[in-house]
Fold:
Amino acid sequence: MSKLIPQLNIHAYKKFKGIALGFCVSSMLVFIAPISMAEERVKDLDMDSLLSLVKDGESRDNREFNDRIQRFNADKNQQKNLLQKAENRRLSLEKESELKEEMFAKNETEIADGQERLTNRLGSLKELFGVLQQVAGDSKGIFEGSLISSELNSNPETENRQIFLDDLIKTAGSSSKLPSIKELEQLWFEMQREMTLSGKVSSYQADVVLPTGDTVKKQVVRLGSFNAISDGNYLTFDIETQKLVELASQPGSRYNGPAADLEASTSADGTSNFTGFWIDPSRGQLLKIMGQSAGLSERIDQGGIVGYIILSLAIIGILLAIWRMIKLTAETARIKKQMNNNSINEDNSLGRVMKVYQQNGDADVETLELHLSEAISSEVPSLTRGINWIKIISVVAPLLGLLGTVTGMIDVFETMSLFGTGDPKLMAGGISQALITTVLGLVAAIPCVFLHTLTNNRSRALIAILEERATGILARKSEQLSLAKA
Structure:
């Protein structure tokens, strides 16, 4: 303590010393005060009074002691009585338990004898009930996923066959209760009704769950146990909810069109006229797969920017080819008309070439040949305009498809390097782009090559006509000059 005091603040030390001193003084006053008060009370009492007080206290203590002894003895007697009652109760329960054990053993023997007699009496019927239970279970599994259940469940007057089959399975598997003849006939009826309705086209009102989640009452046309349609859309039967669900993604107009025709040709009583229809033997599974498959627009989107560039070039090439074919066809018609007419018309290339001959009729053969060659050369650009662009597009389109293939494979390898090859779906996007761009490049190139060949042959045919006519003009001019010299 003496080592720590120099390190403390002098003022704090003095303050702490005063507080400790005050606490000691107050404690002493607390203890001294009761002692002084007791001494004052003793001084007020005399010796006789003190003696009487002691005697009264001794007698009071003796009474309390006697009372405690009496209560203890009374409690001891009560505990003995309770113990005796508990022992008597235990003995009676042991006797009752022995009686019940004897009764239980007797009942087990009687049950075993009864089971043996029941087994002997059932004989081959026991095997029959096992087969009945199996058939009922198989029928229940078929009925749960059957479209016919949607029609039967929509009719409030029809008994729920699922509940009936559950009760029949429990009864057939029970050893205490046997199926009745009525229940056997009911099972036969349900199986026969399923087979009969599976060969009919039926129209009825039923609850349909829309892709939005809403449930509405709609007119449904059921084609056997294969397909169900409503408003031209295909429906599937949900086993858990036992309701018809409209497919969120329909298979397309190729299949929805016949569905609408079948629905329009089916009357309210279920009779239907002959019409073509697509049947899904998997009861909706193929329709779901077809609905999830990508359509034309989705396929084009998979090609990305390169795919759209290829399609744009293909459209430009086709439009350019159509424009040139229209121009060349009109020019062919005008040239044929000029060939059958002696008067010169300058609205066609042949007429303009003949106009050059008319203007240079007095020239010699060599000069006239030069003028005609010049006239034909001036007509060739108008006849071949735009055809080379078609050829360029037919060459560039496959190259762009190859570019898309390369970029798609680059995406595939980047995905493989980041996520590995565990999930093929991660690589599907790049592979789709690689294949779709190749397909689009070929789709664009094939018609462009064909159209380029067609337009090029048509323009060459017209140029050949001009050259043929020019050659004929020169031959006649040469003959005329030869006759004049002769």
Notes: The radius of gyration is 56 Å.
